Amino acid sequence: MVGDDTWASLADQFAEGAYTSVKGRVRTYVMHEQLLEHLPSPPGPVLDVGGGAGHQSFPLARAGYDVTLLDPSPAMLDKAHQRLQRLPSGAQRRVTLLEADGDNADEAVKHQRFAAVLCHGVLGYRGRPEPLVSQLCRCTDAGGVVSIMAGNAQAMAVRPALERRWDDALAAFDARDEIGVLGVPTRADTVEELSELLRSNGVEPLRWYGVWLFVDWLEFGGAELDPGDSQQVAAAAAVELEASRRDPYRQLSRVFHLVGRKTPS
Ligand SMILES: C[S@@+](CC[C@H](N)C(=O)[O-])C[C@H]1O[C@@H](n2cnc3c(N)ncnc32)[C@H](O)[C@@H]1O
Questions:
Q1: Is the CB of 76 under 6 A from ligand 1?
Q2: Which residue has the CA at smallest separation from atom 8 of ligand 1?
C-alpha cells in the first residue's frame, strides 16, 4: 500500500489541489461541525493521526484546542509547517508536528492520552484497518472521542457511474478497492465493520455521518463549481451538513465519518 514516498509526490496535489476545491471546503466545514458535536471543550488535547497538512486539525487549534499532528510523510509535514505559519500566533503555539507512523502512534506520543483522536482519510491507504484502529483507541483517554473518516464500501458504484464508466460501475457494487481520486489504490470500509472494530478496542460508536454528496456528484458529473463564490459554497455546505446527518443521503456518501467514545474507566 501507499508509503511515504508516494505521499511526497501527492503532497502538492492534495494540499493545494483537493482542498482548494468546493468539495475540499465543504468537507472541512461539514467534518468540523460534526466534530464539535462530540469534542469536549478546549483545550483537549487532540491527536490527528495521518493529519497531513492540517486542514482538519488546524481549525481546531484556532478554536483553542492543543493539537498534535502525527504523520509519517516529511513532504506532508512540510506542507503542514508552511500552513502553520499562516495561523495566528496563539493557534501556532497550540500545534505540535510529529513525524511517525500511525502504527507506532502510542510510542511516538510517549503514551500520552488524548481527549480526541482523529484519523481522516488514512485507513483506505492501509492494507487492513486493525493495527491503526487499535493505536487510535489506545491513544484515546477514558471518556475521550475517536473520529474516523473512511471510504464507504457500500457506495463504490457511485463514482464510476457518475463518470459513465458503466462496466466499472457494475463491477464496483461488490468491490472494496479502487484507484482513488489521487490516482493511487485505496480500500474502502463499512460503518458496521469499523464500529465492531472500535467496540473490540473499548470504544463505543456514537454516531456516523456522510461527508459530501451533492458537490461530489456534481463534480464527477462534469459541473464546474467555483470555489471563489463564497455565498454558493456556504449555501452548498449548509445543504451537505444536513444531508450528512440523515438517511438515505448519508448512506450514499462515498466517505463516512464515524465517531465513538472510549468507555470511561
Ligand atoms: C489523504 S491524506 C489525509 C490527510 C488528513 N488526515 C486530512 O484529512 O486532510 C492521507 C495521509 O495519511 C498519511 N499516512 C499514510 N500512511 C500512514 C500511516 N501508516 N500512518 C499515519 N499516517 C499515514 C499520509 O502521509 C497522508 O498525510
A1: yes
A2: 120
Look at ligand 1, atom 23, and give the residue with the nearest C-alpha: 50
pLDDT of residue 17: 66
How far is the centre of ligand 1, averaged over its atoms, from the C-alpha of 166 (Å)? Answer: 31
Residues of the chain with pLDDT under 50: 1-3
Provide the phi-psi class of 118: left if phi over 0, else alpha when psi is between -120 and 50, else beta: beta
Q: Which atom of ligand 1 is nearest to the CA of 102?
A: 20
> Three-state DSSP class for 174?
coil
Q: Does ligand 1 have an atom closer than 6 angstroms to the CB of 51?
A: yes
Which pLDDT belongs to residue 242?
A: 98
